[in-house]
Write a structure and sequence with these properties.
mainly alpha, elongated
Length: 375
Amino acid sequence: MSDANKLSSADVAKLLQDPNENNRAEAAAKVASTFGATTLTESERQIAEDIFRVMLRDAAVRVRQALSESLKDNPDVPHDVAATLAQDVDEVAMPVIEFSSVLTDKDLIDIVRTRGTDVQKVVAGRKDVSEDVADALADAGDEEVVATLVSNKGAKIKETTFGKVLDKFSDSDAVKAPLAMRGELPIGVAERLVTLVSEQLRDHIMTHHEISPSMASDLLMESREKATVSLLEGGQKSTTVQELVDQLFDNGRLTPTLMLRALCMGDTTFFEVALAKRVGIPVVNAYKLVHDKGDLGLKRLFEVAKMPEQFLPMARAALDVADEMLETGGDDRQQFRQLMIERVLTAVEDDVDTENLDYLIGKLQRHEGSSSDAA
C-alpha cells in the first residue's frame, strides 16, 4: 500500500484544523484502506473500528459513502459496521450490499424485504446468492429483479423458487429467456418452460437441459417438421440436421431413445446423422452402413455407437418401412403409420421395449386421429 493511501499525522492535523466534509471523507477512506493489514496491532485495529463507528454517525452522506466504498470487499470488517452501512441510504448501502461477504443471509433477506427495486437488483446480482436469498427475491422482487436473479450464474435457486418465478412471470420474455439459458434446470422446470417460450428457446432447452424422453422426442419432431416447412416455403434459414445433432451431442442429449423415436416417425436423415456423430464417421459412410442389405452394417454401427441391442429390431423394422415407401414412391402418411405399427410390433414381439413401443403407437395413432379429424 502506498503512503499516499495511509492516514498520516499531516492528515490528522488537517482534519483537526479544518474538519470539513471533504477532509472527513478523505480521512474515512484512508483509515478504511489500512484496515485488515497484517501490520496493524490488535490495539490499532480496535482504534480503527472505533473510528468507523464514529464515522457511521457522520451527517454527511459523502463521508459514509467513502467509508462504504473502502470497506465493501474487506472480509475483516466487523459485522455491525457492515450491517449499519447496508441499512443506510442507497448510495452508501449499495457498495457493501453488492460486495461484502460479511453480510449474512438474514441481513440480505431483511434488505430484500424492506428496500426498493434498485437495492434488490444489487442483491440479485451478487457474486454468490444462496437459495434462501434467491427465494426471498422471487417473493419480493419485480420483473427486473427476478430477471437479474435468473441471469446470475452465481445464484443458487431451488426448484420451488423456479416455480414461483414461472407463476409470477410466465408472460415475461425478460425473465424466461435468461432462465432458459441457465446452465442447469430441474427437469420439471425445463418441461414447464418449454410450453412458455419461443421456438428458438424451445430448441435450446431441448439441446441443453434434461427433459423427459417423450417431451424431447415431441420437440424434435416439431422442430424437424417446422424446418422442413420453412425450407419448402422459402422461409428463413432454420437449424440444419447436422447443427441440431451437434448441439444435442455436445450437451449429452443425443440419446438412443431420441434417435429411435425419430426413426420410427420416419426421420431417417436425423437417425443417420445422429449415428454418424456417435460413431465419429462421415454421414455418407453411416448412410451406407445403415442401408446395408446384409444388416451387418447397422449391427456394427449400433455396437460402436453404444446403442442398446434391444433397439436394433425396431430400427430395422422402421428402416424397412422407410425403404419400402421410398421404392414405391408412396407418400401416404396413413399407410406409413399402419405399416410402421405392424412391422415394429412384429419385430419386438419376443423382446418388448415397452416405453418406446407405447410412445410410438400412441404418437402414430394420435397423428392418425388428427388427420381423420382434419378430413
